[in-house]
Each structure stands twice: as C-alpha cells, then as structure tokens.
Write a structure and sequence with these properties.
Length: 110
Amino acid sequence: SRLRKWNYWMMSQRAGTLSYLTFSAGFSLVVYALFYVFCDRYGWQLGLFRTFGVNALAAYVLHMMVEAAVKPFLPNDAPAWYMCLGCAAFMGITYLLVRSLEQRNIYLRL
C-alpha cells in the first residue's frame, strides 16, 4: 500500500519502462538536432566542445585518472556548494590536460 502502483506512464530508468525509453530517445534526438543546426548549419563553436571532441579518447582516459585524484577530497555528506566546486575542479583539470595535448598536436585515435 505504501508503494506506487505501476502504470503505463510511469517513468523508470531502472525498470526500463516504455515511457522512459520513448522520452529519453526523443530528448536525445532534440538535443542532437539543436547541435546539428547550431554547429553544422550556423558554424557555432565552443572551445570546450571542440577540445573534448577532437581528442575524445584522451579525455576519456584522463577523466578516470582525474576522478581518482579528486574523489578522495569529496566526502559523501558534503554540502552542495562543495560538490559543485569539486565538479568544477574535476572538469577544469581534465580540460587543461586535454587542451595541453591539443596544443602539442597529440591526438589519440583508433
């Protein structure tokens, strides 16, 4: 009686309900379409996306190492401002490392 009853419109990622899958697919398509229009049609660029995009494999490898270095400084019961600061430090360090590889023309490709 305390649990919510299942219905067709329940959105649950864990259960993989049809409404959640439909919504997330549609949302992803809209975001992709917006990036396509603004970036490919109008030539809009943001340095952050360009840097992570041209060296995505290096960013993927480095972000795991940066996470291992930053995570010990963020306790589970930290306030929201502290977590936001930790996330900014994580993103900033990862960006600086990937940007330095880009400036040296070092790209990891398959």
